[in-house]
C-alpha cells in the first residue's frame, strides 16, 4: 500500500506533468508522472512495480483529474 502520497506540478506554467513522492514498504520513492500517464522513476524502482504504477494512476485520477 502506498502511504504519504503527494504530488506537485513539474513545471511552473500550465504544462501537465507532476512529481510524485510516496512511501511503499517503508521506502521513499520519487517519480515523474508525465501528461500521457507514463511514470519515470527518479529515486529507485519499487518492488511490484506494475502494481505500484496502478496505485499511482488511481491516486492521480482521484486527485488531479476528478
TrEMBL record:
Entries under Pfam families matching the protein: DUF5342 (PF17277)
Organism of this sequence: Caryophanon latum
InterPro entries attached to this UniProt entry: UCP037692 (IPR017263)
Lineage start: Bacteria, Bacillati, Bacillota, Bacilli, Bacillales
UniProt-recorded name of the protein: YheE family protein
Amino acid at each position: 500500500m502506498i502511504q504519504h502520497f503527494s504530488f506537485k506540478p513539474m513545471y511552473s506554467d500550465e504544462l501537465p506533468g507532476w512529481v510524485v513522492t510516496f512511501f511503499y514498504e517503508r521506502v521513499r520513492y520519487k517519480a515523474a508522472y508525465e501528461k500521457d500517464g507514463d511514470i519515470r522513476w527518479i529515486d529507485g524502482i519499487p518492488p511490484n512495480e506494475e502494481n505500484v504504477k496502478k496505485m499511482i494512476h488511481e491516486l492521480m485520477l482521484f486527485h488531479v483529474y476528478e
